[in-house]
Records
---
Amino acid sequence: MSMIEFKNVEKYYGNFHALKNINLEIDEGETVVLIGPSGSGKSTLIRTVNGLEEIQEGQLLVNGFDLHDPKTDINRIRKNVGMVFQHFNLYDNKSTIENIMLAPRLVLKRDEAENKRMAMALLEKVGLADKAANMPSELSGGQKQRVAIARSLAMQPKALLFDEPTSALDPEMIGDVLDVMRDIAKDSSMTMLVVTHEMSFAKAVADRVIFMADGQILEDSSTEAFFNNPTEPRAQQFLSQVEHH
Amino acid sequence: MDLLQNNFSTFLQGFGYTLLSSIIALVASMILGTFFAILQILPQKWVQKVGNIYVQVFRNIPLLIITFFFFLVVAKLIPMNGFTAGTIALSLYTSAFIAETVRAGILSVNSGQMEGARANGLSFWQAMQHIVLPQAFKIALPSLGNQFINLVKNSSILAFVGGLDLMYQGNMVAANTFDTFGTYIIVALFYLVITLPLSYYMQHLERKLKHAA
């Protein structure tokens, strides 16, 4: 069953045509990596999936609900779709564990003891159990991102969106974050859509790679096919550029 | 010293009314100010406009005129004494400045905070209450402290409408004793009894919150 489905989606910023006739289907449990040069619309596309960006035309079905339908309650979709940002967006006024516990408490009305137990288990999973009481300002970038991932997981979402999760990190921090993401991808029921420039991660983890340029999807193929013989000249060019540095 | 001793209960009564008016106006103007600050950052243009008109009206008219308006005009429709009229005017006037201060605070909270909260499943109002406003107040704190101190001093407009406050009682004492200079020194000292602890408290709060995060 498809978790995310774009049907002829168009997105404009004023006169700028940001997404052009997007058709894309992502199945439940799939891990899909979205790559492309900067300004190609990758971030815009991923942000439409949980309604942070509105679409102007077409249909966008997430977990069976149409995001373009005004009757759809966006908060209900967001309950099931987590997002991890480039700049983490942790709550600066809350401790690490409170960052994780807040949404389950307010949105899911999860029992407080259960909430705490789950939050600690998640911190354990991302290797930061000893940082539970720390404020975000006391964490490194890599630690912040792992807390942000734990915060998303605490809602027990069906899908997770990653918008360049390692682009703002120092090189030595990237590995830890990718390890956590790799772990999540192993969970066969979690749908993951990842915008990244980490080609090794894409090769190792993705079921499918989507290549975008100028607001269009130019290539949508299995990971193996994409890296071994990309069909689009622009994808070939992009790959040769990112792989030779 | 005799002046203070002989009129102590009068000064004390004035002090009490000034303190009461200030506390009521402080609470009311914080609530109103925060409300109109939020109106101005909501996406709907007409709602923003309503917030903006409120702020412009009460920020740009002298406090004394607002006070007279309530005491002379509104009191004809809804009977109220000078203390009430003055306190309402003081609340509305101060709330316009607080709205601007809080709005600036909200705007200087990184937009990623709201986005992170919404993506995490929180509603706009939950995100405001738990994430954005606490950070906005912290940023706005030094400026809010200024507003609070101004508010206490501005409460002296109550004297113009028989509001029984410190300034009003001071005027009475000065008229009775002819010791104008001495009386207003005492009045000034009574104001300092409120404003000095208030400004120390605000500075303390600022330091405390700075260390908290």
Note: The two ends of chain A are 39 Å apart (CA to CA).
---
Amino acid sequence: MNDLKETVVMNLPRRDARDKLQGRTKYTVDVGGLEMLHAALRRADVASAKIRHIDVRAALAMPGVHAIATAADAPGLHGLGIADHPIFAGETVRYHGEPIAAVAADTLTQARAAAAAIVVEYDDLPAVLTMADALAPDAALVHPDWRNYEILFEGGARGGNVAWQATVERGDTDAAFAREDVTIVENVYQVGRQNHVPFEPRAVTAAFEDGRYHIHTSTQAPWTVKHVTARVLGVPDSAVHVTVPAVGGGFGLKFDCSLEPYAAILARKTGRTVSQVNSRKEEMMTCLCRENADIRIRSAVTKDGDIVGREATVLMDCGAYGGEQVFLTTMTAHTLGGNYKLGSVRLCTKAVYTNTPPNGAFRACNGVYNTFALERHTDEICAAIGMDPVAFRRRNVVGDGDIGATGQVFRGNVLEPMLDQLTAKYPVERRSGTLPDGRLYGRATTVGTWFIFVGPSAATVNLNADGSATLVTAGVEIGSGTMMQSLPQIVAANLGIHPDKVIVKTADTDAAGRDLGVGGGRTTVSIGAASEAACAQVRDKLLGVVAELLQTSADKLVLSGGRVEIQGRPGSGTTIEKIVQQAETSIGPLSGSGAFTAPGERSMPGCAAGHFIDAIDIPVFAVHDCEVAVDPVTGHVEILSYRLVQDVGLALNPRAIHGQIQGGVVQGIGYALTEEITINSDGAFDQTGFETYRMPLAGDVLPIEFDLYEGAPSIGPLGTKGAGEVPILNVAAAIGCAVSNATGKSVNALPMTPPRVAALIDGKAPAPEMGHIDTVWVKNLVRS
Amino acid sequence: MAVTFTLNGQQRRYSGDPRTSLMDALRCDFRLTGTKDVCGEGFCGACLVHIDGVPKVSCLLPIGAVEGADVTTIEGVGDLGTLNPVQQAFEDFDVVQCGMCFPGMVMTLSHFLQDNPRPSRDEVKSALVGNICRCTGYERIIDAVMSLHNSAEGRK
């Protein structure tokens, strides 16, 4: 295995760079030519209403229009955990922007004109636009018939506007908080939404061919698209075929099914291929954002710094439908409940329905704001008990044999040596002060825990007669480079060939087996492990043929440099090409298949309820350190330095990981400082384009200094962990703690825009109103 | 009114509505999809093309305005087999991720480096003020550009 590690690690360049740089790559948005019909959606422009009447007759008669689809064409409901989501609003509109009808026409202009001409008459209903409104005692229900929905995953408590509740209860927190020797620290935090802004919006082309739907789409999860499309159309999964070209950015947004069912229905109705692309405004206003969240957290800590009790309630706004947030309630246990040893713990996480656009998954999902809240709270604890924040963290981070919130036993000391590595390289001289130019200086060091979302993957490897290999999986290249770099590297190392000789088939559900999708840092781990298993079959067959040919035993043979040799006797063997040719006359072409799934880490029985994952198979840790300068007048925050240590298991391609770290941290800087979404009284986002949604520009960023921490335990192939998701994890936490240190004020809300920071400095930014989360933890529970 | 202009070295004619944006005409009619439609408001730079050698956002420009002009899109930069120095540096430094912003980045920087062959890091960042990237966090793009500067220094 050690030999394999030596050959697998390299800074392999990306094979897709040249076409992308020359403008030749055909993304989904680039394939909708004149030969196709074009689709447009009629979306609701109210947040909550009964639909009294829809009349499509005039629209259908307009020039170029071929077909119009409405709720009658797709009655099925889909969802994660609960099937609560129709693809068209039929009787009820639950959010501003909800699709009501879809039009296919010869041109996009015609389709949009016809969509606008559809007559929709509403009877307005009261709208709940905030979680505080949604949880008020007499709140209007977003889903009055929530009891009747099909449950797809058992275990979550539900009720009223609470779509899902996950709880953790380990140990006796009442006793911990009642101790006389503890300091009790309680804080509240509030964070807004973050829009992914993939440069390629959600887009699809669909055709109905030979009795099946062929969907060519910009997705991270082709098997999810296949399943959800089939479900809402009421056809078997086997009737849907999904292919995926290069995807122009995902960041989690494209982990769900999106436009695919509309285009599929219109393709069936018209007999033509249909192209459908979200306009930028639609993409901005219906983005499945990182959700806004409200958090209350309290801890009982001894004067020595032991956390004997912790209680927290996290409210996640799922918008009008449960979606990913139902699943993501699980993650609080491993993020807000992570990092530290806890004597006792109670956590309650609720996905709350509101009449706002649904939210979704975004790079490190709820980990980003839970880490912000946890690390800010940790610094408040340190201030309250008078302990150095790094010393407190060193003392309390989970290490080998320690248990997490749900009682899972962690293996290996990882966070502590990572903290030591960072502080040894960049010793802490001060955490606050004033710079010569009058700005306020702050520095902070934070820790974070995230995970690899493992789960099922399948791979097939064919070893070809020319000595190349073809890897067939449902993996998608979303920009992170995994399909271009780590997977060919893994296959090549296992077969003793160069990665340039590994052909990577683009995702195709007719060719590749089931896969959970590209996200959650899982591609290198899960598809990589399935690919290794497939390679093992190929290698066994190959070596069997050679052993017979050379009259030696297979365990004396080594594969490298495109040859098979008898160990210790270079030149004794032969080329892979010759062996493949030989095999064709004896056992046939050499191919193998492999599979992988989550092995299933154990939690402590009875600790967790309503969780989709009770214990995490592969934890990933990060230590971030940041220095800021804050302008005391304008509230502008400049980041002076940003340094981190990231747990990567084994760095397969260090240069590519550097790219993920630089990009992920900058996305986190946007989240922390400038990217703000506000929801107006119509239930719509105010930020409808790039003028108002402020992403980081080149002039806003700095080079991220980093060290990769290798060797932590991982079940990933060759000890790898995913490296692309986690860089964003503690960015808001590190900047938030640094701004607090600089200003001497408690940062309790994101983003830290200049007006908000200026108000903080002036003492005009009180802690967020959090009356809808009771200070008595147990009173927050929904019982059902 | 037909619009006649030079597109990637060839004389072309457009007979549709002259108010159509140059970007839509390039993508939908001429099927040159390397010019990317991202924000549609002139902020992101993904639709940049060269008009008479100067970078312009094609999403805000009616095609009627390029009558008689020389238009170069990303497809017209270099030829199939050869990358220009900026493209080559991006490939060599492994800076491409999703790729959607890179055609525009190449159009901006290729022009910028003609006038500023030895820019400072800050000057490169200023040049990129009209090009947004959501994946890379920019700095490695700047590293790649600075390598061109350094190699120019090295050749002296």
Note: The longest strand of chain A covers residues 307-319.
